[in-house]
Design brief:
Structural class: alpha/beta
Strand content: 5-15%
Number of helices: 17
Number of domains: 1
CATH architecture: Alpha-Beta Barrel
Radius of gyration: 21 Å
Order of helices and strands: HEEEHEEHEHEHEHEHHEHEHHEHEHHHHH
CATH topology: TIM Barrel
CATH superfamily: Aldolase class I
Oligomer: single chain
Bound molecules: flavin mononucleotide
Largest sheet: 8 strands, parallel, barrel
Distance between the termini: 50 Å
Shape: globular
């Protein structure tokens, strides 16, 4: 994780961020601020968007973002990353609900672009947390394994509780091609539903990232229909992107989210990631490449430390993009590079754009507390630079929960990193649930209150009734 030193405040910072950008497919983004993909945590049991999603996306749509990327929509309802994930077609009514969500964003000519993040969590899908399959049913992956969350006995217990059985290794080529088809079908549905594009999730140790990784895919099998010269680990991503390109229009935005490093021994490192990104650029199929990093074993992308101190301004992965970008053509001649992680300060955002550490800036966690962050703060000329700092907030009760759950208290170097990341992620999802219910986010919400009120009461107990009602009405009326 490298420091990215802030530069002096400059009067044109807001102008730099406000400047529009034209992508290789000719579509223009009105400014450089992207609401990063965040699982919304709304409802239980997967399925298409609910009323809460519509309300939440309406709020983001009015907030001044140039682009909004949805939370991960999973291609397989049994293989979820969280029990609340959106899922893609298993029923004709799915299209209707995704169309409604797109309409709730595209209300005015000035509305942001909307991308659907399409995903498969691979071996990181937990049967005991997500309850979308029996505990003894496996996740699927290029290898048979389970994530290692730490070396000690507590880590051993955690990983057995979350992943009671190892993943099933996918070997038949037909099964891989079936996965390709589901990603492509998801993109086709997104376009039919009026979305502006898709982002293929190939980061954070999910299935497509596993296929790229020497650690998770030690003996990759070639897939048919791919140019001979292409490295075998790129075959799956190539077939998906090629399928999306062939089956959607040119104006439909194609994006990918990729790791600059897995931050685990034997996984993708920065040198390999640089080669992967350069190859992706050479295919000329992509409009946006988002750079992130980490897996559940080492969740750099969700590092709670990057939220803490407004004085320690950091962009998590800028050192990678800064050295990569000079070798990539700028948009519209090449894909826009979207950098996400720790970019929580107006001056840092402006300097990252000005020095071309990126073309677009993704913001995640602060957008859960302030859906109107661009209009209210970053692009607001009345807000001085010193106040245009978006991180720097504590999560009440998170230190105690980290101690109790094995996350090592407030020390970033001790305990299970996934616990700290999970505590922070859940708290932010609960803020999204509040917005979806039509109430203000609550920065003072104690973690335990969030667990009881937002998670157990609203999302599990009430969410379960709504899921059952939806299932029943679907069977009877649709
Ligand atoms: C509540 C929450 C849910 C997230 N869900 C996703 C997701 O569905 N897909 C994804 O690629 N990243 C997801 N992320 C990671 C964010 O996209 C982003 O990479 C991360 O929060 C770092 O950006 P930030 O420092 O601005 O928060 C999630 C993060 C949070 C806080």
């Amino acid at each position: 994780m490298a420091d990215h030193a802030p530069v002096e405040a400059r009067a044109d910072d807001i102008d730099v961020i406000r400047r529009s950008l034209t992508l290789p497919n000719g579509v223009t983004i009105k400014n450089r601020l992207v609401k990063a993909a965040m699982a919304e945590g709304i409802g239980l049991g997967g399925g298409p968007p609910r009323e809460g999603h519509l309300k939440l996306y309406e709020e983001w749509a009015q907030g001044g973002w140039g682009m909004i990327i949805s939370g991960n929509a999973q291609i397989d309802p049994k293989q979820l990353a969280s029990p609340h994930d959106l899922t893609l077609p298993d029923h004709p009514s799915t299209l209707k609900r995704y169309t409604k969500l797109a309409s709730s964003v595209h209300r005015t000519p000035d509305s942001p672009l909307l991308l659907m993040q399409i995903s498969h969590p691979g071996l990181q899908s937990s049967s005991t947390i997500n309850l979308s399959r029996w505990p003894w049913e496996s996740a699927i992956a290029p290898c048979s394994d389970r994530p290692t969350v730490s070396d000690g006995p507590i880590g051993w217990l955690w990983s057995r509780a979350v992943w009671p059985v190892q993943s099933r290794q996918i070997t038949p080529v037909d099964e891989w091609l079936g996965i390709v088809k589901k990603f492509v079908d998801g993109a086709v549905l997104a376009e039919k539903a009026g979305w502006d594009g898709v982002q293929i999730h190939s980061a954070h140790g999910y299935l497509l990232a596993e296929y790229l990784s020497p650690l998770a895919n030690p003996n990759p099998r070639p897939l048919p229909g791919v140019p001979d010269h292409l490295s075998v680990r790129l075959h799956l991503l190539y077939l998906i992107l090629e399928g999306v390109r062939e089956n959607t229009s040119k104006g439909f935005i194609k994006a990918v989210k990729i790791n600059c490093s897995d931050f685990v021994q034997g996984g993708i490192d920065e040198k390999q990631a640089t080669e992967i990104v350069k190859t992706l650029v050479s295919w000329s199929m992509l409009d946006i490449i988002e750079i992130s990093g980490g897996t559940y074993s080492s969740p750099a992308f969700a590092s709670p430390e990057s939220l803490k101190s407004p004085s320690a301004r950091q962009s998590l992965f800028a050192h990678f993009t800064s050295s990569l970008l000079p070798s990539i053509p700028s948009p519209p001649n090449g894909p826009a590079i979207l950098l996400t992680g720790g970019l929580h300060d107006r001056r840092l955002i402006a300097s990252s754009l000005r020095e071309r550490a990126c073309d677009l800036v993704g913001i995640g966690r602060p957008a859960c507390l302030h859906p109107d962050l661009p209009n209210k703060t970053i692009l607001d000329e009345g807000t001085p630079d010193e106040q245009a700092t978006l991180g720097g907030y504590p999560i009440p009760g998170s230190g105690l929960m980290r101690v109790l759950l094995g996350g090592g208290g407030n020390s970033p170097t001790r305990g299970i990193k996934l616990v700290g990341a999970g505590i922070s992620t859940m708290w932010h999802e609960w803020q999204l649930c509040r917005i979806g219910r039509g109430v203000e986010p609550d920065p003072d919400m104690h973690w335990l209150r969030g667990l009881i009120i937002e998670e157990i009461w609203y999302e599990v107990i009430i969410g379960l009734w709504i899921s059952m009602w939806r299932f029943w009405t679907r069977q009877v009326f649709e």
